[in-house]
Amino acid sequence: MLNDADGKFRISLYKVFLFLHITTAIKSGDLNFARSYRYRPMDAYLISPERRNGEKSRLLERAD
After folding, report:
1. Secondary structure class of 4 (helix, strand, coil)
2. Cα–Cα distance between 61 and 39 in angstroms, integer?
3. Phi, psi at 37, each rounded to 5°
4. For 32, how many CA atoms within 13 A lie in the half-sphere containing its CB?
5. 59: helix, coil or strand?
6. What is the pLDDT of residue 43?
7. What is the DSSP string of 6-54?
8. HSE of 16 in the Cβ direction (CA atoms, 13 Å)?
9. By the 8 A CB rule, do 9 and 21 touch?
10. Over its length of 64 residues, how does the chain's per-residue pLDDT go in tens digits?
11. Which residues contact 17 (CB under 8 A, 6 or more apart)?
């Protein structure tokens, strides 16, 4: 599919397949970026153990 009738490599079609594969991997969580604001690993949403142990009472108060 990536080669035309003359055997020439079709770069634009390759890019489409590549971007589709990357977006699917990002949405499913198979691919994460260290600096992404929209798709972050699950650990990025959690409170660190150091902060939790140091500010436990304040965090519980804020969470009501």
Report:
1. coil
2. 29
3. -90, -25
4. 9
5. helix
6. 77
7. TS-B-HHHHHHHHHHHHHHHHHHTSS--TT-SSS--GGGGSPPHHHHHH
8. 6
9. no
10. 788 888 888 888 899 999 999 999 988 878 877 777 676 777 778 888 899 899 999 989 988 8
11. 2
Tokens (6 digits) for 20 = 């589709």
Residue 39: per-residue pLDDT: 67
CA 50 to chain centre: 25
Look at residue 3 and give its three-state secondary structure: strand
pLDDT of residue 35: 73
Angstrom CA distances, 50 to 25, 45, 47, 60, stand at: 31, 15, 8, 15
Take residue 53 and report the two structure tokens written for it.
Answer: 């142990």
Question: CA-CA distance, 16 to 2, in Å (whole number)?
Answer: 11
